[in-house]
Known about the structure:
Layout: E1 2-5, H1 8-16, E2 21-25, E3 28-32, H2 38-49, H3 52-65
Helix pairs in contact: 1-2
Amino acid sequence: MIRTVGDLGAGAYLLMHKWKPLGRKGRDILFEVSDAENKEFEALQLQYLTSEFHRFDACIMSLKKMNEYRE
């Protein structure tokens, strides 16, 4: 089956953990996941939310959105 992931950070985390993206559809990243692998795929997406990688990704996004400093 084809699974979609809408969060770029979660997609990168899955890529770091063996999952190969098939491509993109709009903002979603597509992954092919067998029925047997589906639980592992779901668990890894939940694991991402409490990982240091998620914290790092959140920090990068906040820096990206920061306005230019002016004195």
